[in-house]
Automatic annotation (TrEMBL):
<dbReference type="InterPro" id="IPR012337">
    <property type="entry name" value="RNaseH-like_sf"/>
</dbReference>
<dbReference type="Pfam" id="PF00385">
    <property type="entry name" value="Chromo"/>
</dbReference>
<dbReference type="Pfam" id="PF24626">
    <property type="entry name" value="SH3_Tf2-1"/>
</dbReference>
<dbReference type="InterPro" id="IPR001584">
    <property type="entry name" value="Integrase_cat-core"/>
</dbReference>
<dbReference type="InterPro" id="IPR023780">
    <property type="entry name" value="Chromo_domain"/>
</dbReference>
<keyword id="KW-0175">Coiled coil</keyword>
<dbReference type="InterPro" id="IPR056924">
    <property type="entry name" value="SH3_Tf2-1"/>
</dbReference>
<dbReference type="GO" id="GO:0015074">
    <property type="term" value="P:DNA integration"/>
</dbReference>
<feature type="domain" description="Chromo">
    <location>
        <begin position="308"/>
        <end position="359"/>
    </location>
</feature>
<dbReference type="InterPro" id="IPR016197">
    <property type="entry name" value="Chromo-like_dom_sf"/>
</dbReference>
<dbReference type="InterPro" id="IPR036397">
    <property type="entry name" value="RNaseH_sf"/>
</dbReference>
<protein>
    <recommendedName>
        <fullName>Integrase catalytic domain-containing protein</fullName>
    </recommendedName>
</protein>
<dbReference type="GO" id="GO:0003676">
    <property type="term" value="F:nucleic acid binding"/>
</dbReference>
<feature type="coiled-coil region">
    <location>
        <begin position="184"/>
        <end position="211"/>
    </location>
</feature>
<dbReference type="InterPro" id="IPR000953">
    <property type="entry name" value="Chromo/chromo_shadow_dom"/>
</dbReference>
<feature type="domain" description="Integrase catalytic">
    <location>
        <begin position="27"/>
        <end position="153"/>
    </location>
</feature>
Length: 359
């Protein structure tokens, strides 16, 4: 009887699409390759939202060498065009360090534009973009930005004036001149040491991360479910409501991309979604001839989320605080049971969904 029940539950379509897996995350850590030479592999990002200076600058372009961790901080205007940014990149990076082999960055519209991609293709530079699933790919520049912001805050408190004129770097007193073969020898030794230390740190980081992950593999031709995240428009204290993991599909696996990613055969309704997914977003599908799969795929956003809509208000109450009482309503969301209804402030629900109070 136990075996029959387990088999029945495993092939239940509702259970496969709704239940959450209480297991370790799938897919082992895949670190980036260690750079071979300084300024051969770089990462970059923007610091925006800064106050405007006398030169009209309101952003910083941070470019970091992944081997030596040295960086360039370029004061720019947030409204600069991609062609203007390309000129700045050529003058400040390529002129000093040569053309990089690869660039790690997030999916900023300026980095994903056709002009930037065409320019880097002409240079022979490979673009490596982070994803919404794995933003840690761009962690090097993000960590450098944290240090930069701390130094800028300290300078803004200590000195008056514009942030693009703040003395955030201090050089050693005096000059040390090394030329000829001695410079080449010392440089090669330092680069070898840096690569060895990076390898040790990367191996240690991978061992720590893999302790909380598990190996999960699928074969070409198998069918899998794809995880999506329902996102409610209601915000609590500036933070969106909780996410309830769901699965849509099943979809056929067309090919394996790399070690932990797969390309799926998506329907036309999901043509705006990239077809390659990390293995942690997939769940194996147990086929049953009575399964009838239906789902409003047109509501899925590009980041695999969709906005949940409230269905009805099933209860009301007032909660007394120190000096005032706040009205709350119990909201039943679509595709949820009454047990999963949530209490929200009436003011918040009324501002987000005014039509809900018409009936």
């Amino acid at each position: 009887m136990k075996e029959d029940v387990a088999k029945y539950v495993a092939h239940c379509l509702t259970c496969q699409q709704v239940k959450i897996e209480h297991q370790r995350a799938s897919g082992m850590l895949q670190p980036l390759d260690i750079p071979v030479w300084k300024w051969d592999d770089i990462s970059m990002d923007f610091v925006t939202g800064l106050p405007k200076t006398f030169k009209k600058n309101d952003a910083i372009w941070v470019v970091v060498d992944r081997l030596t961790k040295s960086a360039h901080f370029l004061a720019i205007q947030q409204g600069f065009s991609v062609s203007r940014l390309a000129d700045i990149f050529t003058q400040n990076i390529i002129r000093l360090h040569g053309t990089p082999s690869s660039i790690v960055s997030d999916r900023d519209p300026r980095f994903t534009s056709h002009f930037w991609k065409g320019l880097q293709k002409a240079y022979g530079t490979k673009l490596r973009f982070s994803t919404a699933f794995h933003p840690q790919t761009d962690g090097q520049s993000e960590r450098t930005i944290q240090t930069l912001e701390d130094m800028l805050r300290a300078c803004a408190l200590e000195w008056s004036g514009n942030w693009d004129e703040a003395p955030i770097c201090w050089n050693e007193v005096g000059e040390k001149v090394i030329e000829g073969p001695e410079l080449v020898r010392i440089t090669n030794e330092k680069v070898a040491i840096a690569r060895e230390k990076l390898k040790e740190a990367q191996t240690r980081q991978k061992s720590y991360a893999d302790q909380h992950r598990r190996v999960l593999e699928f074969k070409v031709g198998e069918h899998v479910f794809l995880k999506v995240s329902p996102c409610r428009g209601v915000r609590r204290f500036g933070i969106k409501g909780k996410l309830s993991p769901r699965f849509i599909g099943p979809f056929e696996i067309l090919e394996r991309v790399g070690e932990v990613s797969y390309r799926l055969a998506l329907p036309p309704q999901l043509s705006h979604v990239h077809s390659v997914f990390h293995v942690s977003l997939l769940r194996g599908y147990n086929y049953h001839p009575l399964h009838v799969v239906s789902y409003p795929l047109h509501t899925i956003q590009e980041d695999l989320s969709y906005e949940e809509e409230p269905e009805a208000i099933i209860d009301r109450q007032e909660r007394v605080m120190r000096r005032k009482s706040i009205p709350f309503v119990k909201v039943l969301w679509k595709n949820h049971t009454e047990r999963e209804a949530t209490w929200e402030t009436e003011e918040m629900i009324r501002s987000q969904y005014p039509t809900l109070f018409e009936n």
